[in-house]
Amino acid sequence: MTARIGSLTFDANDPLRLARFWAAALRWEIHDETAVDIGLMPTDGTRFLLAFVPVAEPKTEKNPLHIDLVSESHRDQTEMVARLTSLGARPIDVGQGPEADHIVLADPEGNEFCVVVRGEFLATTGLLGAIVFEPADYPRLGQFWSEALGWPIVYESDGDMAIRHRSGRGPFITFGPPIHPTKSTKNRVHLDLAPPAEGDQQAEVERLTGLGARHVDIGQGEVSWVVLADPQGNEFCVLTPR
Q: Domains of the chain, with CATH numbers?
């Protein structure tokens, strides 16, 4: 069996503050406010957590990964943006242009995310509609993550690709536009993969490196997880079986 997503993890200068923002934004529950690493427990059937881990360095560039939140109409989009800004988000310009039908916000530590209006593509998602890799090394990156997670490719057109859990439920992971980006720093948002309880961490690491991942050193030291990078250089962690 392939590993599953255990969490989408944010580096944070103030993990509790950022966790409280996202808990209110998603209406998820904070697992333990006294912990150093804070996790949000989903209340909507999402299969993975949001996690917030402390770092000292500030955010300096646009994240290659972001979240898309889904509103039900243009009016709901406006109301959602107002609610999120009241919680501490702010509008930002990442080059989306005035004709964009999505609204780009940043959370209290500057992590970009979008509020989109539900359409045919996102018809069956919850509030958390997609994890977006943007820009993406198309199609290699989408193919890697499809094989890494065992999620089939469900959309591919004009340089955009999407994968989704084989159940057809939950958020998408999308990739696009087809650009070969240059990374200059460690990602502040990354995926943590967890082998199943009966799985083997080293065997999973070997499988992923066989698909095109590579070992990277981000100063993690002696830890129980293994840090890899996907073919575009996006870091992710392989946890112990659970």
A: 60-175 (3.10.180.10)
Q: What is the DSSP letter of 178?
A: B
Look at residues 155, 130, 149 and name the one whose alpha carbon lies nearest to residue 2: 149
Nearest to 82 by CA among 113, 130, 50, 115: 115
Q: What is the pLDDT of residues 183-227, one digit of tens each?
A: 889 999 999 999 999 999 999 999 999 999 999 999 999 999 999
For residues 85 and 107, the answer to whether their CB atoms sit within 8 Å is no
Over residues 59-117, the pLDDT tens digits come to: 999 999 999 999 999 999 999 999 999 999 999 999 998 889 999 999 999 999 999 99
**Contact predicate 231/137, CB 8 Å:** yes
Burial of residue 17, with CB atoms counted within 10 A of its CB: 0-12 exposed, 13-18 middle, 19 or more buried: middle
Q: What are the angstrom distances between the C-alpha of 133 and each of 98, 180, 232?
A: 22, 12, 10
Answering whether pTM is above 0.85, one says yes
With 0-12 / 13-18 / 19 or more C-beta atoms within 10 angstroms meaning exposed / middle / buried, residue 57 is exposed
d(CA 113, CA 68): 6
**Cβ–Cβ under 8 Å, residues 72 and 118:** yes
The Cα-based distances of 132 to 27, 91, 171, 176, 190 in angstroms read 21, 18, 10, 8, 11
